[in-house]
From TrEMBL:
Its EC number is 2.7.1.5. Residues 255-447 form the Carbohydrate kinase FGGY C-terminal domain. Residues 45-245 form the Carbohydrate kinase FGGY N-terminal domain. This is Rhamnulokinase. GO terms for molecular function: ATP binding; glycerol kinase activity; rhamnulokinase activity. InterPro entries: ATPase_NBD, Carb_kinase_FGGY, FGGY_C, FGGY_N, Rhamnulokinase. It comes from Allostreptomyces psammosilenae. Keywords: ATP-binding, Disulfide bond, Kinase, Nucleotide-binding, Rhamnose metabolism, Transferase. The keyword Kinase applies.
Amino acid sequence: SAPSAFAAVDLGASSGRVVVGRVGAGTLDLTEVHRFPNTPVRLPGGLHWDILALYRGVLEGLRGAAAGPDPIASIGIDTWAVDYGLLDADGRLLGNPYHYRDARTDGVAERVWERVPAAELYAVTGLQHLPFNTVYQLAAARDTAQLAAARTLLLVPDLLTHWLTGSVGAEATNASTTGLYDAVAGTWSRELLDRLELPAALLPPIRRPGDPAGTLLPQVAAETGLPESTPVTAVGSHDTASAVVAVPATDPDFAYISCGTWSLAGLELSAPVLTEESRAANFTNELGVDGTIRYLRNVMGLWLLQESLRTWAARGEQHDLPELLAAAEEAEPFRSVVDPDDPVFLKPGDMPARIADWCREHGQPVPETAPQVVRCVVESLALAHRRTIREAARLAGRKVSVVHVVGGGSRNALLCRLTADACGLPVVAGPVEATALGNVLVQARAAGVVGDLAAMRALVAATQPTTRHEPSVDPATEAAWARAEARAFG
Ligand code: LFR
């Protein structure tokens, strides 16, 4: 039978895209129909997502999908995690959703832990501590007029789904990133909500990847040219959950790094690891598709490079990324390395200056040139990948024999090669558009076009190009990375 076509809406921290994926026996291909920038806006009250611009991009993309050659069998939406919009009693959006890098959560976690100690939060949610987890954002909003007026909280993909269909729900993989989701029971944690005095009624019913999420509202159908009967299907609406679906692993002993603005590095498990050791190492047990656990840690990722480029551009220094990476390749190895996960790097700002400060404070040579900064960032990320994957394997009692790098970072050959050397393992790089592929595949599975997770991965492996980076065989390599690791994480 002919392949079926599915539209995937995938919003990342720096850009959004709408792609059409065609899936059939032995077929999986993507066509990008629309790509648009995601530019946050700073208001006097804080840093926000421009949600209406994003929604306009979604509509424009769907219009492009409707105009294409294939009838669209369904639509799926994924975005970054954690952030949300609030609806009032009339179902209207209350203000612009905050950006997770906004400063209003500074110092809030400590207040939350006075009510519910961090160890108790972890025992219920299995979630790594990130200062911007939804639970802390809500605590920061505690006495605001906005929260008082709110009746429904919708995570960003669920908000966009609501505007397309009118349906109200919370997709489970993304719900698992809020800090309010019981990882074992698979529901909102009534106990945590009560103890934190957060209104449980704000949180909509959970839906799972593959569940129907409504059909298009008449005005959406009119505006996009898609039939009103077009269904929206819940996918792994947390982008990382969708990316992990499309890891083209054929060996069961695989680790993955979903590498974009963040590097999400870890393992797929069948059950959460909720030990105190795991909490102390700040590993998360986020929910994956089909009840799998994404056992991983957030590594600061290409954000460090993106913010450096932005800083230089604002100063009128234009750099061509491929040229810069080529120069970084030639730069002196291990001149300076930083802990990329130091919270000083989290907020938007002058990243080269922060890296210089970090190096100065830790007795390392300050990177002077742009290629030196880039070398430092890429090597530091490779180090963080090494440390994170080794710790995940140890804490989960698992062996790792290959590392899959998916997402935009899989195109960065220097980062992939250094990650292979740092981990002492082969790196299989690609696909770049893993998130959109995972989004499409879960829709296709709901439509009965593809089988289970293993079958989806086999289809990705058979159809999408990848590049293999073998680790260095020089016996001095491991010692060099171990020394660098001590300097960065000391
Ligand atoms: C990646 C991601 C991460 C999440 C971060 C913030 O795009 O979704 O998984 O921790 O963004 O939401």
